[in-house]
Amino acid sequence: MSFEKRGHLPLDYRPVVYPGSVLRFRGPAHGLVRPYVLCLGGSETFGRFIHAPFAAQLDATLPLDVVNMGVMNAGLDVLMNDPAILAAQDGARAIVLQITGAQNMTNRFYSVHPRRNDRFIRATGMLRTIYREVDFTEFHFTRHLLTHLMGLSPDRFSLVAAELRTAWVARMSAYLRAATAPVHLLWLARRHPDDPGCRHALGPDPLFVTREMLDSVAAEAASLTIAAPAVGQGSTTTRGMFFAAREAAAARALAGPELHDAAARELARQLS
């Protein structure tokens, strides 16, 4: 196997399985003995390509265990329905919830795989009516599907984007209202929430989430931490990340170690 450069070797994520789930979470394993902090989110929380993700740094800093239950490519569906995650939430002293995009969740236009939320399963009758010319059997991933739909008709696509945004806000608000522990929201991304969206492309994650959406749900959370480049200063550097050559594009889309460091510092202050 070839690699991007010397030292950028794939990491050993020490995968673990918790009772009730078939998902593999990032190790090390924790006994889920109360009290503990639970970190939920997508690939960034999992710490893909990162030696010391923010959850691991918090675990070394705080006086109680910090359990990383980030899921690769997760949307809200798996985070809010996986049995192990639900059980862990009940015993958490606090929850850190990373902001994930609105594309990887079941909605009125399409459904996603219940565990691998980036996998497109099927279109609903509503989407088939809007895009009669599309053969939806050709698509396996949500981003591929949405990129194609946007290219066909930005006007029709605006209906899809509006539905995803509405569903995201409703689901996030319902989660925050039902949470039994304080929820600390984390924006960990290569774009700042105040950056304008891309006009001719889907753009970087968290996909479709705007500052207005973020503020509306943050009002119901214990805190909001933003770990991102300054407005207009999006970054694609992979310095300090560990990946194989074929994973370079994926690495450029994820937050680097400097953003994980910033997230850990601010979250440690919020959780202390």
Topology:
Elements: E1 36-40, H1 43-46, H2 54-61, E2 65-68, H3 76-79, H4 83-90, E3 94-98, E4 110-112, E5 120-123, H5 125-130, H6 142-152, H7 154-178, E6 183-188, H8 211-218, E7 223-227, H9 248-253, H10 257-271
Parallel strand pairs: 1-2, 1-3, 3-6, 6-7
Antiparallel strand pairs: 4-5
Brief sketch in words of this structure:
The protein has 272 residues and is of the alpha/beta class. It has helices spanning 43-46, 54-61, 76-79, 83-90, 125-130, 142-152, 154-178, 211-218, 248-253, 257-271; strands spanning 36-40, 65-68, 94-98, 110-112, 120-123, 183-188, 223-227. A hairpin with a 7-residue loop joins strand 4 and strand 5.
Written account of the structure:
With 272 residues, this protein is α/β, with parallel strands linked by helices. The protein has a domain at 36-104 and 169-271: Rossmann fold (3-Layer(aba) Sandwich). 35% of the residues lie in helices and 12% in strands. The chain has ten helices and seven strands. It has helices at 43-46, 54-61, 76-79, 83-90, 125-130, 142-152, 154-178, 211-218, 248-253, 257-271, and strands at 36-40, 65-68, 94-98, 110-112, 120-123, 183-188, 223-227. The strands form two sheets. The chain has a five-stranded parallel sheet with strand order 2-1-3-6-7, sandwiched between helices. Strand 4 (110-112) and strand 5 form a beta hairpin. The radius of gyration is 18 Å and the shape is globular. The protein starts with 35 loop residues before the first strand and ends with a helix.
